[in-house]
Design brief:
273 residues; binds S-adenosylmethionine; globular; alpha/beta; 45% helix; 9 helices; nine-stranded mixed sheet
């Protein structure tokens, strides 16, 4: 397992304590079922302002992160008749980036990759479908819970999730579902926020993320809860080495991650062997 990019190095065993696999628990949620309902309602409420706030609060870096993620999977997207599922797709921005990359990586024979986006918050999906219709995208969107996917085993060559995996109420179940629907030699890509600990850049980022972003996001979206939940959920989310161990634990091979933007964003990749 390696951390890639300019700081590539093996992950030391002591970097990951053996925390038990858990899941998100928004304030007040007593169990997994309640956590899921709260997350779904919360994202449903912020759907109308979600894209605007994403681009504003990240200074449009979110577009670069998704584009870069899609590029990392150019090889798999160039497989003839590849099938791709973007989980927790929200308003579809990673789904569309994957579709664009698939068109750029056309296979020599067979059809261009087919891309699906799925999410359980209907207002997010409505927005994704409107965007698809207005820009003549082919991606298809469907409502489904990432913890219980309505797909047969071995349906996809690639399964991704951008800033969504952290919100699952049960991470092990999420990874196991992804493993189930992936074909052999299929790949997983999880793009997530991380909580960088050391140095001036990370400290500045943490200050922004914990103190400025929740205020601006809360004021513009009208949901203080959602934008207060964001830094809290990132702080509680496992570190990249820990998530990597969990991915290995459910059987993924070639588990890697790379860190971007002072370590505030991590792209995890692995293969179903
Ligand atoms: C922060 S948004 C990310 C949206 C999109 N992937 C992006 O890059 O902007 C998280 C999304 O995950 C979805 N989500 C969280 N838990 C889910 C679950 N169990 N099943 C399906 N979608 C889920 C939410 O509804 C929300 O749309």
């Amino acid at each position: 397992m390696t951390r890639q990019g300019t700081e590539s190095r093996p992950v030391a065993a002591e970097e990951s304590s053996s925390k038990p696999l858990t899941g998100t628990r928004p304030e007040g949620a007593r169990d997994q079922a309640e956590a899921g309902v709260r997350v779904r309602e919360m994202f449903g409420r912020i759907a109308p302002r979600y894209d605007f706030l994403n681009h504003l609060l990240s200074l449009s870096l979110d577009r670069t992160w998704r584009r870069r993620t899609a590029k990392r999977f150019a090889a798999i997207l160039s497989r003839p008749n590849a099938r791709v599922l973007d989980l927790c797709c929200g308003t579809g921005d990673l789904t569309f980036a994957l579709e664009r990359q698939a068109n750029d990586s056309k296979p020599a024979h067979g059809n261009v990759a087919k891309v699906w986006g799925s999410d359980f918050a209907l207002p997010m999906l409505t927005r994704a479908r409107e965007k698809a219709a207005s820009s003549r995208r082919r991606a298809l969107f469907l409502a489904s819970d990432a913890l219980s996917l309505p797909f047969a085993p071995e349906s996809f060559d690639l399964v991704t999730a951008a800033f969504g995996f952290r919100n699952l109420a049960n991470y092990e179940q999420g990874l196991t579902e992804i493993m189930r629907v992936l074909r052999k030699e299929g790949r997983i890509g999880i793009l997530e926020f991380s909580d960088p600990q050391h140095g001036f850049g990370p400290a500045a980022f943490r200050f922004y993320f914990r103190h400025i972003l929740p205020r601006v996001g809360g004021a513009i979206s009208g949901s203080r809860e959602a934008y207060a939940y964001l830094p809290g959920s990132v702080a509680k989310f496992p570190s990249p080495p820990q998530l990597s161990r969990w991915m290995e634990g459910v059987g993924f091979a070639d588990v890697r991650y790379e860190l971007w933007n002072f370590g505030s964003v991590a792209l995890h990749t692995a293969e179903k062997s």
